[in-house]
Amino acid sequence: MSAQHSQGIQTLLEAEKEAAKIVQQSRQYRIQKLKDARSEATKEIEEYKKSKEAEFKAFEASHAGTTSEAQAAVDKDTEVKLKSISDSFDSNKDAVVQKLLDRVVLVKPELHRNLKKVGA
């Protein structure tokens, strides 16, 4: 009976080793599939990215003329406004300086409105 018992145990141990080997192979297979899926996803992402970049460059090229024209119009408008501001500055400079000097030099001494007379 002991020979049958040890042979049964030996068979169980071999079955356990075989099961462990199968589990290990399935883990390896799963890991490999995950790596393959990741690399495939990365390739798809890169292809999509390249296609969208090409699409954007085509869009940008088709609208480049409009952008440069708009920039030229904005630059021209800015120059006109700067010239207007400079002219206004030059024409009003003396008057503003005179008003400032008048305010500083011509002081009317008077009591503050919040000051109350004492003893009255």
UniProtKB/TrEMBL annotation:
**Superkingdom, according to UniProt?**
Eukaryota
What GO molecular function terms would the record report? Answer: ATP hydrolysis activity; proton-transporting ATPase activity, rotational mechanism
Keywords, A to Z, come to: Hydrogen ion transport, Ion transport, Transport
- Give GO cellular component annotations, separated by semicolons: vacuolar proton-transporting V-type ATPase, V1 domain
User: Among its keywords, does the record have Transport?
Assistant: yes
Q: InterPro entries, per this entry?
A: V-ATPase_G
Family note = Belongs to the V-ATPase G subunit family.
Q: How does it assemble?
A: V-ATPase is a heteromultimeric enzyme made up of two complexes: the ATP-hydrolytic V1 complex and the proton translocation V0 complex.
Main function: Subunit of the V1 complex of vacuolar(H+)-ATPase (V-ATPase), a multisubunit enzyme composed of a peripheral complex (V1) that hydrolyzes ATP and a membrane integral complex (V0) that translocates protons. V-ATPase is responsible for acidifying and maintaining the pH of intracellular compartments and in some cell types, is targeted to the plasma membrane, where it is responsible for acidifying the extracellular environment.
What's the name of the protein?
A: V-type proton ATPase subunit G
